[in-house]
Write a structure and sequence with these properties.
- With 134 residues, the protein is mainly α.
- It has five helices and no strands.
- The chain starts with 11 loop residues before the first helix and ends in a 43-residue tail after the last helix.
- 17% of the residues are buried.
Length: 134
């Protein structure tokens, strides 16, 4: 979902889309131009689409190449990117949105069991409970 557009200067996503369309380029063509100019072959039209829909904000590396390819001042793109990052921070819910330090995810217990526990061990496995001889 795209965050609401605040009044004032043009947000980065619509700005990129307007500049791209103004040069008569598709998202695919812009991605190809960015790859050729930067020497990084991994940028796809999907990433350009994410930038335009404001799902992601390009970093300084790509902002510089966007400015070159779209023939626009990098300052204009950098200001719009800064506004987009601030808007994203304000829109994030309170609480940890990222994994804890060390990369360990926070695991929460299940609320409901999806199936009954096994009454006997699988073939070739030792039971996990104490057994009585029968």
């Amino acid at each position: 979902m795209t965050p609401p557009t605040p009044p004032g200067p043009e947000p980065l996503g619509p700005l990129l889309a307007r500049l791209r369309r103004g040069r008569g380029r598709s998202q695919q063509a812009l991605a190809a131009e960015l790859c050729a100019a930067s020497g990084v072959p991994t940028l796809s039209r999907h990433e350009v689409s994410r930038w335009e829909r404001q799902l992601r904000v390009p970093g300084g590396f790509w902002l510089g190449w966007l400015a070159v390819v779209l023939a626009t001042p990098v300052e204009l793109l950098a200001e719009a990117a800064g506004r987009a990052r601030r808007a994203r921070r304000r829109a994030q819910p309170a609480g940890p949105a990222r994994p804890r330090a060390g990369g360990t995810p926070i695991l929460r217990p299940r609320r409901h069991a999806t199936h009954a526990p096994r009454s006997s061990p699988r073939r070739g496995q030792q039971p996990s409970w104490p057994c009585r001889p029968t």
